[in-house]
Amino acid sequence: MNIGQLPLADWINSGIDWLTQFTGFFNGITNFFQAIVNAIQWVFDLLPVWLFIILVLALSYWVKRDGKKWGFLIFELLGMLLIWNLGYWRDMTQTLTLVLSSSLIAIIIGIPLGIWMAKSKTAEVIIKPILDFMQTLPAFVYLIPAVAFFGIGMVPGVLASVIFAMPPTVRMTNLGISQVPGDLIEAADSFGSTSWQKLTQLQLPLAKSTIMAGINQTMMLALSMVVIASMIGALGLGTQVYFAVGRNDAGSGFAAGIAVVIVAIILDRITQAFNKQAHH
Amino acid sequence: MTKVRVEVKDLTKIFGKQAAQAQKLLAQGVSKKDILAKTGATVGVNHASFSVHDGEIFVIMGLSGSGKSTLIRMINRLIEPTSGQVLLDGQDITKLDKKQLREVRQEKLSMVFQNFALFPHLTVLQNAAYGLELKGMDLDKRNEKAKKALRLVGLNGYDQQYPDQLSGGMQQRVGLARALANDAEILLMDEAFSALDPLYRKDMQDLLLKIQEQMHRTIIFISHDLNEALKIGGRILIMHDGTVDQIDEPEAILTHPANDYVERFIEGVDRTKVLTASTVMNHAHAVNITKAGPRVALRRMRDNDISSIYVVDDENHFVGFADADDVADLIRKGSRDLRSVLKTDVPSTHPDTPVNDLINEISKTPIPFCVLDDENHLLGIILRGSVLAAIAGEEVTE
């Protein structure tokens, strides 16, 4: 018996072809994403290296409340100086731009989605498998339609990062809100609070640290996308790694790779410190 | 009889998807167990009816799984009733839409929870002011009211602390303050003191009674602790398996249990705290001093096989107490006036005195206590034997 191969690839292609006719819609998204990217990059380009370093140190000093902050500040200072010394400064700010803009978009979309999941069983049942799909589908696969819809450059890179990095924020928001003890919800109800009051005065404040942990993961996942995003023209440290791979230049590859690690550690510690600060 | 604040009529809750079918079976008199087997639905509360009067502490009493928590939650509709009515000052709560329900919850009903349910991210003061904030009261005014409520429950100087910095008992004071600050006339207290250790629980019960003396709220109090129910309850509703067994005053529950379940339920209770002098007293043999002389008194004693007799006046006021020997002497001397041999240094007590407070003295004093009301009327006497019988759970017989 001969069963023909299922033309799944053809279906998806024709689906994507059909979608590309909505140029206006995709241009709108492109422009919106581009505006966010440009604004962040503009700020970074405006700041001289020394001022940027001071601002990062000041932010770390302010958010880090525990005793180990001086060690971390020295690490930050040395790390950023190393990146500057290696000539990766502009690449680093581009990487930061990619990470921050995709995380920002992921949070703006992700938190409401998470809230919706926590409030509605139906939404949860529908969104959960989509999140699994977004996270497990190999990230390279997004790149192809991303280029088809958004061309080459930062924007498709941001979009692919958003898709890959958003699930933790959605999941953790859902988790944080669902974990608010039932008797507190009952107490809020028994005193006659509205759904909105319950959300803003009780559920979100109590879910804050869980949501922050999700945001932290989102940023780390976005950072892990920088090399992949560089393949479709998103500039930054990822581009340097990608080029080094192409030239079989292990030294440059590692140098750029270490710069990514430094950025990752700084972002991770600062967002975690924000989280700790959230407790009274 | 005072005004009825809360009236519950045929309130029923059935959990599960086939509630409608289960309800039909329930109406046909099918048992809870069979309904569960047939439909998979659980009968939480089965046609409960009762009314709570203004200013009363009404205790709903039952073991876990009896449906008492479901019942109290239907009163403010944290749980939606399957059928039946809850009338609050005549207004049917079950018919309200969401907005009206919120208003009723803000204005009329406040709840105190077993595990305190304080908001961990808010200070003690903010917690106490929570209900007022929902009402839209401005910050200064609600803080002032919340502080007043906190003082009332005996919490001074903890305003800026967070709940997790307080002990369990203090947390529940905050819970109580949050409910009181709201000025809601009806308090729903769901096992409010059950999570506290015994010593603190007693303090809180006393506090509640003290506050109630000043505030005269209408309180519906859930408990699984019969001693607690007997201590604070004006009336007690005993339920099991979702059905109401008995609604009565504490003493009546102890002396006249409505069915076998209640009887078994009250077996272990410390009766001395609940029973009062008036429940354990016996009929006092007395003679009226204006009508009876020594001879009548002596004959009465002989007829009843007693060695002394109480003497009262026309209006049954206590006058004194006479020994058989003294009366016999009097007759021998030919005197007709009992007054000369009357003793007045008899131990006496008020009818509302708990037996617990009397036991010690009764065991020490050979002559019986006489029970006198505020106007000095002789109501009865307390014999050691009948105290023991009452503690053992037997009815006091004449």
Strand content of chain B: 15-25%
Here the CATH topology of the largest domain in chain B equals Rossmann fold
Shape of chain B: elongated
What are the low-pLDDT stretches of chain A, counting only 5+ consecutive residues below 50? none
Shape of chain A: flat
Strand content of chain A: under 5%
| Average pLDDT metric of chain B | 86
- The figure for the number of domains of chain B is 2
Radius of gyration of chain B: 27 Å
Number of domains of chain A: 1
User: What class, by secondary structure content of chain A?
Assistant: mainly alpha
Q: Write the H/E string of chain A, N to C.
A: HHHHHHHHHHHHH
Number of DSSP E strands of chain B: 16
Strand order of the largest sheet of chain B: 6-7-8-3-9-10
Multimerization state: heterodimer
Distance between the termini of chain B: 30 Å
What features would you describe in this structure?
The complex is a heterodimer of chains A (280) and B (398). The longest helix of chain A is centred in the middle third of the chain and has 31 residues, at 89-119. Helix content of chain A is 84%, strand content 0%. In chain A, 36% of the residues are buried. Chain A contains 13 helices and no strands. Chain A has helices at residues 8-19, 23-46, 49-63, 69-85, 89-119, 121-136, 139-150, 154-178, 182-190, 195-224, 226-230, 237-247, 250-277. In chain A, helix 5 packs across helix 12. By secondary structure, chain A is mainly alpha-helical. Chain A has a single domain (23-277), classed as MetI-like fold (Orthogonal Bundle), CATH 1.10.3720.10. In chain B, the strands form four sheets. A six-stranded mixed β-sheet of chain B has the order 6-7-8-3-9-10, with helices on both faces. Chain B has two domains: 4-108 and 184-269, P-loop containing nucleotide triphosphate hydrolases (Rossmann fold); 278-391, Roll (CBS-domain). Chain B contains 17 helices and 16 strands. Chain B starts with a strand and ends in a 7-residue tail after the last helix. By secondary structure, chain B is an alpha/beta fold. The radius of gyration of chain B is 27 Å and the shape is elongated.
